[in-house]
Amino acid sequence: MKVLVYNGALNEKHIQEIEEASKKAGVELCFTSSENDIPEGFEDSEVVYGYGMNLVNADKIRGNKNLKWISMISAGIDYALKPGFFANENVIITNSSGSYGVTIAEHIIAVSLMMMRKLTLTYASSLQGEWGSLSMQKSLKDCHITVLGTGDIGTCFAKRVKAFEPAEIIGVSRSGKNQDPVYDKMYSVDQLDEVLPGTELLVMSLPGTTETEGILSRERISLLPEGAYVVNVGRGSAIDYDALMESLNSERLGGAALDVFKVEPLPEDSPLWTTKNILITPHSAGNLTLDYTRDKNVHQFCENLMNYVESKPLQHVVDKVQGY
Fold first, then answer.
1. Rounded to an integer, what distance in angstroms lies between the CA atom of residue 284 and that of residue 72?
2. How far apart are CA 14 and CA 297, in angstroms?
3. Is it the case that residue 53 has pLDDT exceeding 70?
4. Can you list the alpha helix ranges (DSSP code H) found in 2-100?
């Protein structure tokens, strides 16, 4: 069995771990940094580990009819679920859910504090050589927080923000079932409209599905109280941006921190760049930029590789119907 690894974020420690796992599994292994550099004999690899959005342009990988399992380095893989995306429609797709919770949770707390403590304003003043001015601030303490999307990422955030003593942490999930005791209350998506009027900080960590597209609509943005904050680390398709920009420019909302967008990179002429009280980051909340994330990502693949060769159930298998 042949295994192709295409992951440019690996260091020597990760390469060694994958080599040891592959030796134990008894498979042929190949590392490549480009689809054009795949060695002869590995074009039809049964297993591929790596990729992200660049898989869209990876014709050799997608066209490999012998591909049985692709282990994606990302957590969100909605782009790879379209009919005909892979030559083998029955390919097993696993994602790296579970490896991004820590890094994205830290990002959410960082940008929330930046907005609520007005650090975005004072930092902008400092870049101009200005002392800046004092203004009223808000705190995570006694804050009413709603987590829309209570998977690994949302729950990792909820556990960490709990230390800031918020008034409550409400979870909103597809089923509405209480998955973790960190949430003070749990609601279903159907009940979202009931939750938003009492939400001071809305954290969105949703996968990209037909159900989540446009979920934060104009009507729902209007339900948020004056001065509320929005953080989106899930998918850019989840928000009505025109309505969000109007609420930010009128200063009805306190701010928004966006890490994901419908089109990435965000076009230079996007009006989001000049919207008031907005914090834009280049889809950097996750990715493999944190050592812990890379270590966890590689370790999960190595564990799954052993499961695969031993015909055991794989972890983090994506439900192609649900989209995650």
1. 17
2. 10
3. no
4. 12-25, 59-62
